[in-house]
Amino acid sequence: MAHRRRARRGKRARGSGTLRLGLVLLVLVGVNVYVLFFGSGNLKKVRDAAREAAAETGAAIPAPPPAPAPAQKRTVTGKVRDGEGLGSVLRREKLRPEDSDAALRALGPVMDFKKEIKAGQKYVLELDDAGRLLRLELRASRETSFVVSRDAGGNLVARGDRPTQH
User: Fold this and answer.
1) Cα–Cα distance between 103 and 156 in angstroms, integer?
2) For residues 91 and 100, is the Cβ–Cβ distance under 8 A?
3) Angle CA(146)–CA(149)–CA(151) in degrees, nearest 5?
């Protein structure tokens, strides 16, 4: 019986230590919130004081940094080589692995890779200045093409243009 009592005391001691630690952390967070938002040197007062000092000295408040320049596109054209798959083409063109995987996943439901990728087919890759894929167009035939492009959310989506069958 003495053994059981010791085990129970050990569990209580561990639980109370966790509770104490939680209370200490809660108090520290409360102190930080008070100092930052309600104390004498809170963030709003510091910002306002900086603006007043800039106005008194005649210095302008620094403007926000300019927007980054629009990404410049780089276009790569080529043909599928004999015995080469689309994944091999994208690796050969040194496409980033995450873009290559996303493009292949997007094309999966739209096309059958084994039947529709053949040697001699032309492709066009559009990349931004960081090497990120913006657009991929694969010409399977005169009438059939597959396009992968970025949607508004920045995800790669694919569509296939095939001739209608009568």
Assistant:
1) 6
2) yes
3) 135
Q: Where would I find the H helices in 73-148?
A: 86-92, 97-107, 113-116
Residue 2 has which token pair? 């003495």
Beta partners for residue 139, in sequence order = 122, 145
From residue 59, alpha-carbon distances to 48, 49, 52 in Å are 15, 14, 10
Which residues is 13 bridged to in the sheet? none
Residue 70 and residue 40: Cα distance in Å, rounded? 44
Residues paired with 138 in a beta bridge: 123, 146
Q: Mind listing the pLDDT tens digit for each residue in 47-102?
A: 787 788 777 776 555 666 776 666 578 888 999 999 888 888 888 988 888 988 99
pTM: 0.53
